[in-house]
């Protein structure tokens, strides 16, 4: 994974090495052209300065390049022409000199290296040029002496020339090289022309002058016919002294240029930084001012448009500032409020507590307070508000202003009151529902025993009742069924008021409905000699409604017509079509009602003063009938004349050209059971109810009955002996019948067994829950023997016969 980066780094290092060697070699070769015999050194050796600059910037790859470049230059100019030891030693000296100079500069000169201060320039020249160059001069001179290239007498002059050449070359060439490769670039790049180009031109001019002076001096000495040795010595001395003087001048110029440009650069940087800082301050101030204007505008928009009233007052309560919502809330303009105090629009009963809280707020007892209070608006109306009051302080931290955020909660309080009323109503409804459920259950349980045994007595063929006893049993049943009817009326009224009554509307045939209803009251009407007649229009025979509820309404109207009629009176039933509605009028010749009684006719539990009469009733039959008619899209109204009779008109939607007409309005009848042996398991904890069920199932000798008194025992018994049908009560001593039903339906071995609920719980929600849980039928106590046997026959007839 790292092979490619390593190879790239190696190539970069090799390129630096070769570039440094090439630069060193070219400058070294050119400088040695100025070498002063009999030595082996030049008075100006710029390659040493380039070497120092490259090692300072690039490190070890540049040092290796210095060694390679020095070796190549000295090998090419090797005076012996045979051994390479001398070039190698000189190359090592040059590399050590560059490394030492770089180390000294990095150690004692301020980094990063910018040479902008006189001290830094002096230390750079003293350490990097003059001190470090002792190394190469010493190593090279020693090598020249050892190899006898230079005689012992010539060694001091040769060493001095070498040291001076390297020192001056470093002092001049290093700054030039740093303007090209120095770091940081932002410091050295601007000095490329002022330092680099200037020193380069001056140095080149000086080098040309050195060559020219040396040549001129040589010609002059020859014209005086001096000896060759004297001419050479004189030329060498003059050239060397001139070169050193000129190069020292250039070095001083370089130092001055570095110092001046460095200071100039420093001043430029400082000016630029100060300018940038000033620009930044101006920009920040402009941004702050813009932000302040924006914040003020935003605050002003919020203050003016927030749907909460805001009011600023001083510590004495004098109004200082308000927003439009507060003005709207109290009904005063902003100008008028500035002349008022907070107590002027506060309800008198709330002023004292406001003052107390404000005093504690100013004293620092709490940072803010919230409370509900009342305002009196300009119109004199009371406005309830929620007030959040806090304290504002001046820059010295002293209390300065009181600010109040005020929200109108009048409607909120009304909603809260309405919500409490709704919750109270719901609680009342729940309590009523619970009461009705308990009442229904507690009344239906003994009724089940009473009507069940009465029906069994009437059906008993082995020990039939004596003729005098039959009317008594009939009276028992009549009273029981009447009580059940009153219970059902109460439950119906509760269902209607709660909106839980469900209707199934369909096309109904009026003749069949009236025939079934007339049959129910015909016996009582005959006893009192009441004649029943009808006159049904041919175009008013079909209505839209719920069969059970329409029959319930007609039964109530006709039974009332019998109940409140006179002996030998008449009941007339008529129908007619009016505005796509069928009106059914039940008219009697009974007691009639006064206008006052007629106005209170449809009030629940109001029997219009006939509570003490011999006629039974609850006073809710007509109320239920009217509500049922309205739920089916119809109406029920009455006309009456006291002493002449009453007429009740039921109006229902008419049906034109019906597709289907209901025809199953007859009462359930019990036929003969054709099936053979069956097993019924009854789960019931009430012994009386068990005996009633035992008597009912006694009408089917082929049916065997098992009994369990608890839910868990019943579950175990049903799993042990699988019955054909399960009769289940909902109130059991250990678990509820609903829980047992869920167990049965979740068990694969019992889930297919039909479950018929026989319970005194008659609320619609309870019935729906059981049906949804998987019950086949739901029968409410007290049960009709015929209805129960019909349901069992229907279920058991579909079961295969089993023989034990």
Task: Please characterize this protein's 3D structure.
The chain has 804 residues and is an alpha/beta fold. It has 4 domains: 13-274; 309-408, Beta-Lactamase (2-Layer Sandwich), CATH 3.30.450.20; 503-653, Heat Shock Protein 90; 678-796, 3-Layer(aba) Sandwich (Rossmann fold), CATH 3.40.50. The chain is built from 24 helices and 17 strands. A 5-stranded antiparallel β-sheet has the order 2-1-5-4-3. A hairpin with a 5-residue loop joins β4 and β5 (399-408). The protein is elongated. The protein starts with a helix and ends in an 8-residue tail after the last helix.
Summarize the structure.
With 804 residues, the chain is an alpha/beta fold. The protein is built from 24 helices and 17 strands.
Notable characteristics:
single chain; alpha/beta; Beta-Lactamase; Heat Shock Protein 90; 24 helices
* Radius of gyration over all CA atoms, rounded: 62 Å
Shape: elongated
In DSSP terms (H or I, runs of 4 or more residues), the helix count works out at: 24
Termini distance?
Answer: 86 Å
Strand order of the largest sheet: 2-1-5-4-3
């Amino acid at each position: 994974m790292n092979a490619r980066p390593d190879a790239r780094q190696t190539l970069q290092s090799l390129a630096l090495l070769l570039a440094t060697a090439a630069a060193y070699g070219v400058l070294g070769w050119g400088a040695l052209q100025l070498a002063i015999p009999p030595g082996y050194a030049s008075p100006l050796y710029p390659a040493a300065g380039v070497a120092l600059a490259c090692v300072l910037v690039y490190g070890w790859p540049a040092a290796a390049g210095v060694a390679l470049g020095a070796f190549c230059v000295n090998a090419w100019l090797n005076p012996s022409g045979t051994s390479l030891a001398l070039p190698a030693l000189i190359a090592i000296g040059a590399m050590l000199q560059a490394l030492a100079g770089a180390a000294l500069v990095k150690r004692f000169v301020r980094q990063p290296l910018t040479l902008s201060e006189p001290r830094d320039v002096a230390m750079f020249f003293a350490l990097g040029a003059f001190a470090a160059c002792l190394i190469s001069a010493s190593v090279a001179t020693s090598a020249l002496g050892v190899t006898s290239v230079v005689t012992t007498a010539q060694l001091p002059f040769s060493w001095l020339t070498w040291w001076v050449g390297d020192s001056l070359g470093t002092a001049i060439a290093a700054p030039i090289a740093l303007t090209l490769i120095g770091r940081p670039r932002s410091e050295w790049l601007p000095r490329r022309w002022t330092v680099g180009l200037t020193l380069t031109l001056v140095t080149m001019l000086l080098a040309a002058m050195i060559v020219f002076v040396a040549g001129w001096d040589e010609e002059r000495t020859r014209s005086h016919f001096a000896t060759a040795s004297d001419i050479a010595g004189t030329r060498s001395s003059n050239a060397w002294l001139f070169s050193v003087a000129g190069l020292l001048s250039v070095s001083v110029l370089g130092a001055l240029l570095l110092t001046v440009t460095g200071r100039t650069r420093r001043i430029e940087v400082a000016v630029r930084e100060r300018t940038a800082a000033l620009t930044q301050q101006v920009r920040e101030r402009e941004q702050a001012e813009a932000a302040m204007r924006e914040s003020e505008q935003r605050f002003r928009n919020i203050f003016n448009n927030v749907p909460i009233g805001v009011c600023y007052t001083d510590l004495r309560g004098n109004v200082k500032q308000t927003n439009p919502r507060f003005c709207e809330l109290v009904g005063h303009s902003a100008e008028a409020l500035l002349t008022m105090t907070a107590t002027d629009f506060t309800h008198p009963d709330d002023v004292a507590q406001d003052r107390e809280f404000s005093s504690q707020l100013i004293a620092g007892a709490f940072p803010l307070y919230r409370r509900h209070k009342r305002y009196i608006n300009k119109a004199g109306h009371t406005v309830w508000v929620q007030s959040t009051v806090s304290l504002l302080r001046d820059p010295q931290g002293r209390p300065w202003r009181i600010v109040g955020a005020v929200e109108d909660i009048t409607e909120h309080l009304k909603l809260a009151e309405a919500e409490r009323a709704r919750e109270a109503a719901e609680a009342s409804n729940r309590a009523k529902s619970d009461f009705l459920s308990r009442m229904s259950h507690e009344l239906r349980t003994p009724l089940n025993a009473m009507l069940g045994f009465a029906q069994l007595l009437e059906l008993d063929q082995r020990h039939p009742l004596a003729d005098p006893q039959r009317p008594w049993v009939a009276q028992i049943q009549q009273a029981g069924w009447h009580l059940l009817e009153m219970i059902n009326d109460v439950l119906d009224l509760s269902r209607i008021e709660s909106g839980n009554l469900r209707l199934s509307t369909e096309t109904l045939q009026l003749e069949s409905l009236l025939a079934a209803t007339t049959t129910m009251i015909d016996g009582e009407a005959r006893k009192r000699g009441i004649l029943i007649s009808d006159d049904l229009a041919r175009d008013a025979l079909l209505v839209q409604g719920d069969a059970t509820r329409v029959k319930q309404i007609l039964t109530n109207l006709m039974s009332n017509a019998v109940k409140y009629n006179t002996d030998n009176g008449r009941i007339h039933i008529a129908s007619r079509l009016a505005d796509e509605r069928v009106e059914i009028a039940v008219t009697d010749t009974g007691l009639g009602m006064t206008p006052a009684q007629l106005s209170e006719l449809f009030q629940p539990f109001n029997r219009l003063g006939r509570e003490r009469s011999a006629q039974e009733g609850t006073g809710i039959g007509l109320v239920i009938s009217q509500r049922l008619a309205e739920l089916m899209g119809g109406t029920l109204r009455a006309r009456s004349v006291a002493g002449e009779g009453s007429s009740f008109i039921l109006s229902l939607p008419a049906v034109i050209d019906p597709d289907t007409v209901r025809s199953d309005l007859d009462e359930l009848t019990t036929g003969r059971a054709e099936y053979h042996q069956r097993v019924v398991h009854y789960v019931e904890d009430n012994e009386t109810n068990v005996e009633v069920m035992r008597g009912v199932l006694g009408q089917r000798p082929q049916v065997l009955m098992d009994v369990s008194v608890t839910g868990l025992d019943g579950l175990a018994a049903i799993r042990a002996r699988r019955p054909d049908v399960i009769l289940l009560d909902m109130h059991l001593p250990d678990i509820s019948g609903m829980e047992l039903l869920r167990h049965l339906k979740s068990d694969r071995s019992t889930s297919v067994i039909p479950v018929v609920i026989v319970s005194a719980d008659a609320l619609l929600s309870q019935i729906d829950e059981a049906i949804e849980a998987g019950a086949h039928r739901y029968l409410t106590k007290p049960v009709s023997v015929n209805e129960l046997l019909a349901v069992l026959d229907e279920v058991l007839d579909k079961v295969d016969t089993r023989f034990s």
